[in-house]
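so my prof wants the structure for this chain in the tokens format not the other one, which i didnt know existed until like an hour ago. anyway here's the sequence
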Amino acid sequence: MGKYDKLLFQILRGLSDSNIGFDELCGLLEHLGFEKRTRGSHNVFRRAGVEEQINLQRDGSKAKPYQVRQVRAVILRYRLGGEA
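here's what i got, hopefully its the right format
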């Protein structure tokens, strides 16, 4: 099981939303085919075929828990998780 597979499994389980690293979450989104654009403290992710854009902001070294929930909702809605 690779690094992104483990992170994806952790996000989809939803038991530790406040313990997801910001850089790891950004890396996962890029791994899933999202394009990153940074403006100041906002990191905006877009992907063809996905209606929503994901806007992430750093909370120290972690991602904000409500943003992790938004990422999980997009992954589930568009079935981006593969076999996980």
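also thought this was worth mentioning. Strands lie at 35-39, 42-46, 54-56, 58-59, 62-63.
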